[in-house]
User: Fold this.
Amino acid sequence: MKAFVLPFVIAMLAVGPALADQKQVVRDLKKCGSEATNAFGKHRENPAIDEGNGYVGFETDESDATGTKEKYTLVNCATRKLVQLKAEYLLKDSSKGLPGHGDLFAFVDGLRAKKKLANEDLFIKNAQRGGYEVVKGQLAKAYTPKASRGDCGCSLYYPETMP
Assistant:
């Protein structure tokens, strides 16, 4: 029994510090954002953005050893319809430069500067023209866990739209 226990204890003492480095740190950001980091990467939900005319935008950024994934979601707070764009920038493809459509958040910033985000049909048309795959959907029922971030942004900027 001692022959088994002693090597096991030594092994656990050696692995303990390595496991301690892998803890996840989560912090809340202002305006419905959050950030989680650990030894493997980072998941950041940027603060909600008032896009005007009853629309709220949400940017999500995820980085790990394979690369970066970006997501932008536009929510119509009155109808709870949403439009989402996603982009991946993988390290294995880094020698090729950015994909043809460029950086997702820069693309959205450009539309925001031209005041072309607060209209989902116009946003979809511009996104498709820019080479992005468009996903249309519906925000989950209000006050459910799946809708918590969307509800937070809509409550923050357009509280009159919340039931």
Q: What stands out?
A: The radius of gyration is 21 Å. Residues 4-18 have pLDDT under 50 and may be disordered.
